[in-house]
Records
---
Amino acid sequence: MPPWRDVIAVERGSLLMSDQTVEHYERIAADYDEHWSYDPDYVWRFSRAITDALRLTRTDAIADVGCGTGLYTRRLAAEVEPERPILCVDPVPAMLERLPASRSLQPLVASAEDLATGRVALPEPGRLDAIVLKESFHHVADRRETLEGLAGLLSRHGRILLVMLPRTIHHPLFHEAHQRFGELQPEPAEIVDMVAEVGLRASVSYRTFHMAIDRERYVRMLASRYMSVLGEFSDDELRAGIEQFRHAYRNDPVLRFDDHFAFIKGWVRPG
Ligand SMILES: C[S@@+](CC[C@H](N)C(=O)[O-])C[C@H]1O[C@@H](n2cnc3c(N)ncnc32)[C@H](O)[C@@H]1O
């Protein structure tokens, strides 16, 4: 067992997260990668989009905050071949434990808030050139303060990328899940404003990924609560939702939908 696994257990105490979020990711950690591995091309395309958006280079000091199992981080590492390991930050040890042992991935148990406030220090002295937060920023409680703290960790050519879903999504979820998602998900335009408010040069673009998923596979994904919004429902509510889904898509053995993501960028201003 790699030595950092011990560190995970010790540092757990510093985390400030809702029990529901922790439990959700502890429950899905083992199957997380499996949900997306049916289409490895999707993961590669996505990682390439992140590399392009951040213009990552080998010499960059990179952190992936809320990296989860490192499903995308390990592709970023393979593409960029960074000289220093990518710092893989996540507050849920069960997710980080799925990270492959690799010289180019350095795990750190911490939340975005922990890093932003300095409660957990960067393992290496110096600043970060690029920070990625892919589908993790919606879990952050005090977003403005956290963004400000993260921006403070950037080097003078530093940049940050927040990848997030918009409030309205085309995933074939059941009605109540769509509704709840819309209530919980922050509005990307507000995050863009926040990026500008903390002093970074802000911009946003949208990327679309065309999805095709076997319906029965998608049922298994729903049943395992593959999206955190599904953790909002009791077992009975989820069962009813899946029934609703089965009825709505009874004639579609393969589900096709467009997955739109906001790519929100913040660049350190020259000067
Ligand atoms: C939807 S997963 C995304 C994981 C990975 N970025 C990916 O795209 O596969 C969200 C991740 O955010 C992490 N997370 C939850 N709260 C967080 C926080 N306050 N700061 C940083 N990460 C957090 C979760 O543990 C989880 O691994």
---
Amino acid sequence: MPQLSIGDARVTEGDDGSKKARFAVTLNAKADKTVRVNYATGNGTADAGEDYRRTKGTLTFKPGQRRKTITVPVFGDIIDEKNEKFQVTLSKPRNAKLGDKRGIGNIRDND
Ligand SMILES: [Ca+2]
Ligand SMILES: [Ca+2]
Ligand SMILES: [Ca+2]
């Protein structure tokens, strides 16, 4: 069975609006069946609603597809903070198994 892994993301915070943290989710081999996996964000030192938008959903890889991207909005502010982290965790893989199931979102403060 092919294996799913998620990478880390790095984004420099803005001062307003939001910027996108992009997490690549990859399959280590082509699958002949449709692969699905759930994902959800979780707090680290960064808080949902304050620093980033809570995001969850399901990715679908059609047979032959190897790479998808999860996008999480990171909110801008003008508060002097430490650099902060949150995570995106994969769960419930269908027709695949999990390799690295946790991606770290690194937010670099710019204030
Ligand atoms: Ca800022
Ligand atoms: Ca912030
Ligand atoms: Ca800030």
